[in-house]
Amino acid sequence: MAPAISADSQNVTDFVVKKGNGIKGLAESGLQSVPKQYIQPLEEQMDMQNIVTHEFIPVIDMSKGDDLKLICDAAEKWGFFQVINHGVPIEVLENVKVATNSFFGLPAEEKLKYTKENSVTNNVRYGTSFVPEAETSLEWKDYLSLFYTSEKEASAFWPKECKEQALEYMKRSELLITRILEALMKGLNVTNIDAPTSTMLMGSKRINLNYYPKCPNPELTVGVGRHSDISTITVLLQDDIGGLYVRGIDGKGWIHVPPITGSLVINVGDALQIISNGRYKSIEHRVAANGSTNRISVPIFVNPRPKDSIGPLPELLEMGEKPIYKQVLYSDYAKHFFNKAHDGKKTIDFANI
Ligand SMILES: CC(C)(COP(=O)(O)OP(=O)(O)OC[C@H]1O[C@@H](n2cnc3c(N)ncnc32)[C@H](O)[C@@H]1OP(=O)(O)O)[C@@H](O)C(=O)NCCC(=O)NCCSC(=O)/C=C/c1ccc(O)cc1
Ligand SMILES: O=C(O)CCC(=O)C(=O)O
Ligand SMILES: [Fe+2]
């Protein structure tokens, strides 16, 4: 197919960002090479020499009864693990993947209704890259981001192509989320999770549907740049394509997170690193672009509420730990994150004492 647009920079940004076509629209226009605003600086391009092949992210079987220690160890050492036999039905996971493809399959003029400029609510947002206004190089990714406030609000405002499936995935993963967070608290000797602690750990949720179209020069760009999540934990559903890489434990190299059918990837976010006073670590990760096929992923970010103040748990300080993070209002922390391009682990400096 002939390219629908000329390669000049302004035209590309207009077509992708402003007109709602997304990078999916551009990729499907028959383009032969990535436009220059998608070329990452050399040091951010994926260097395959830097892939660690002798270390693996733990895979934890949640049906065996020995998961508590394994979860705490993995969260401390790796900040990332996969869970299997986790209780979220496979059909629920399959349905949300189908729904993701349905949403991104909509014509641009339909998706345009959900952009930051047009969306009738701040809680539903369709976009591309992370923060195009703040980034020097763009990411090869489109997303729909849904902040959950209530079933009623979701019913009224979430796109019908994915509303039910996304809600079902969130609902059916609640038990898993509670189990993991309870295990992590036990690992800190916090056995009584009172109401304020519970809200700080899981008072709000955001679900993102991510779409990474096939890319003509995957080595020059990225799907998502290096970042850590700002959640307490993230539950990530990925399809069978692969491309998610996690920083190795010595801070060097990148470890692939291989797709395992039916599994979910769990990672620690900055909020839990802060709450646990540095015991559990949020780990840098990134997504490579793919030269042969489209990829989707669906993270559920489990968070404090925007209005919560977060800081090291009082129980830890009572046990004699010195706080390494100060109290911060979570919405201030989130705004700090959402107002800059991805910059690895730097977001957490915002909470340093
Ligand atoms: C501060 C929030 C995010 C928005 O508050 P608001 O009062 O509605 O304020 P704004 O709508 O003005 O948004 C503040 C800024 O954040 C931006 N933003 C508002 N949601 C978004 C949005 N989903 N996307 C990317 N910019 C946004 C938004 O564009 C805006 O930028 P700017 O207009 O330039 O000031 C508020 O909803 C809040 O505190 N939410 C709870 C916290 C929350 O959502 N946590 C999410 C955890 S998400 C996570 O861990 C990782 C996410 C992630 C996502 C993509 C990645 O590539 C990698 C990771
Ligand atoms: O697509 C993935 O595998 C991970 C995406 C991610 O890191 C995010 O959305 O925060
Ligand atoms: Fe992430």
From TrEMBL:
Top-rank lineage group of the source organism:
Eukaryota
Q: Which Gene3D superfamilies match?
A: B-lactam Antibiotic, Isopenicillin N Synthase, Chain
One example of the protein's molecular function in GO is: metal ion binding
Boundaries of every Fe2OG dioxygenase domain copy: 196-304
Q: From the UniProt record, give one GO term of the biological process aspect.
A: coumarin biosynthetic process
Look up the record and name the cofactor or cofactors this protein needs: L-ascorbate
Q: Which Pfam families match?
A: 2OG-FeII_Oxy (PF03171), DIOX_N (PF14226)
Coiled-coil regions listed in the entry = none
Which key words tag this protein in UniProt?
Dioxygenase, Iron, Metal-binding, Oxidoreductase
Q: From the Swiss-Prot or TrEMBL record, give the protein name.
A: Feruloyl coa ortho-hydroxylase
Per the UniProt record, the source organism is Thalictrum thalictroides (Rue-anemone)
Q: What is the lineage of its organism?
A: Eukaryota, Viridiplantae, Streptophyta, Embryophyta, Tracheophyta
